[in-house]
Amino acid sequence: MITEREAVALMSEANPVPDLHAYDVAHVEVTTYLKTLEQRGDEMIQTDTKTDVRPERGRRKWWIAAAAAAIAVVIAIGLGTANDADEVPPADDVLPVPTPTTVPTDDLPVTNTGFPADLTGFYAGSAIYEEEDGSPHDRLLWVLELSDDNGALTGYLSHAEARSASFDLGRDLMPVEVERTGDTISVRWDESVGAREDTTVMQCDVTEISFTAAIAQNPDRIEITDGRWIVTGDEPSPFDETCHNHGIPIFVRGVLRQTDNPAAAPE
Amino acid sequence: MSSQDDRFAEIYRSFYRHVHAYCRRRTGPDRADDAAAEAFLVAWRKIDLVPYGDEALPWLYRVAYGVVANLWRTTSRQKRLDRKLMALGVEPADVPEVVIVSRQEAQQILTALARLGPDDQEVLRLSIWEELSSDELAIALDVTSAAARQRLARARRRLADSYNYLESKGFKLSVAQRGGTS
User: Fold this and answer.
1) Which domains does chain B have, with CATH numbers?
2) Interface list for B 7-46 with A (CB within 8 A)
3) pLDDT tens-digit readout, A97-108
4) Does A84 fall in a domain?
5) What confidence score (pLDDT) does residue B37 get?
6) Which of these, B32, B139, B73, B37, lies nearest to A60 by C-alpha position?
7) What range defines the domain where residue A101 resides?
């Protein structure tokens, strides 16, 4: 067992570039560098009108944006008061997504979100956040991808739909680790925020809202027994004060069950 | 050169080495040049937004984080495979830190670091490797100083927990197992 201080000391010793003064960098002459930047900047401006701290943003595949827009619609439906409806793109412009079913808070049925049945190991579920007094708050759709490696499960949590693009997005945002002991599956959330600076694209903004909302609940552990999972959040989000608008602590309850209905798969 | 170019040149001369080191710590030597160049390209295009004085460096780190994050995204499928390999006890070979270190403890702490979420990793690297203060962390992370301190405290706790978890599982990876690093 080591302490936090010892862990920090170890990490300091493991610095790949420990001595900046001794660090030899091939230094480009500034004037030449400026000319290079000017050329590259002109090229990028021609191809990327969304110029910000993410220079590759505009060159990403169209389906990333489409998936983000789809998420935006779902999240906007779920969050309601958290988003300005004027900012939600028209439904015609985004990928078709299943509409989340209203989930009663006292008895949470499975919501079939229409995930392809041939994706074994994929679990779909809906969740409803509750305030401490039991009143419903937000609703998101989540996907938990599980794969069994010698009994140890790894997984990723997403609040997106069964589209490869959104899975990628979700994976970047919210990796989790899953361990199974008997009938209980314990899920650890790493609270990753891979897109915290996505402020230039509205859809990603909304995605981040949904994500930070999930963080606001800040569950460190999910226990799943007999297809029913309960997540308890017990501390405020350290990341964003706006999360506090969502109420803390909040209990998350839902039902998680593997989808096996091919007829439910989207067109 | 214009005054803006002069300012950029000053920023470049002052901080290129730092930003390059930042990128190298996160992407490895083969991608550090491109990542640093991308970060300074953003700085050049956003020169009016670059803070003056000591706040410029954490601002550049924030930009560099975005650049590096883009690199990570483009290799998300590779990362997924890496995670599965890690679950099987095999460390990805192209992680730059892995190439650098050989000591068991250092390997273990870096593996413990890799098990954390990207935000936890970033705040730890910024604090421990880039040696940013709380106020500088706040600029780099675009949060309040209090939030930065809280994040750091949580990340440090998780790092120790992760390390101890690996230890409890009998963490032991030889250099050979880790992809033939030298």
Assistant:
1) 1-74 (1.10.1740), 77-176 (1.10.10.10)
2) 8-9, 12-13, 16-18, 20-21, 24-25, 33, 37-38, 40-42, 44-46
3) 323 223 232 332
4) yes
5) 84
6) B73
7) 62-264
The span from the first CA to the last CA of chain B, in angstroms, equals 45
From the number of C-beta atoms within 10 Å of its C-beta (0-12, 13-18, 19+), residue B173 rates as middle
| Chain B residues 46-85 with a CB less than 8 Å from chain A | 46, 62-63, 65-67, 69-70, 72-73, 76-77, 80, 83-84
Which tens digits make up the pLDDT trace of B102-129?
467 778 888 888 888 888 888 999 999 8
Q: Residue A158: how many CA atoms within 13 Å on its side-chain side? A: 28
A239-253, B68-82, B120-134: least confidently modelled range: A239-253
Query: Which of B15, B19, B44 is the best mutation test for A, with the most CBs of A within 10 A?
Result: B44
The answer to whether residue A10 sits within a structural domain is no
- This prediction's pTM: 0.42
A5: buried, middle or exposed (CB in 10 Å: 19+, 13-18, 0-12)?
A: exposed
Does residue A83 belong to any structural domain of this protein?
Answer: yes
Which of B161, B135, B166 has its CA nearest to residue B148?
Answer: B135
A103 with A51, same domain? no
Kindly state the tokens that stand for A260. Answer: 């096996």
Backbone dihedral angles phi then psi of residue A161, each to the nearest 5 degrees:
-105, 180
The pLDDT value recorded for residue A29 is: 63
CB proximity B134 to A under 8 Å:
no
Residue finishing a domain among A42, A59, A76: A59
Q: Which of B137, B159, B161, B162 to mutate to test the interface with A (most CBs of A within 10 A)?
A: B159
Structure tokens at A9: 């000391």
Output the pLDDT for position A192.
33
Least confident range of A166-175, B33-42, B163-172? A166-175
A28 in the same domain as A96: no
Single-letter code of the amino acid located at B130: E
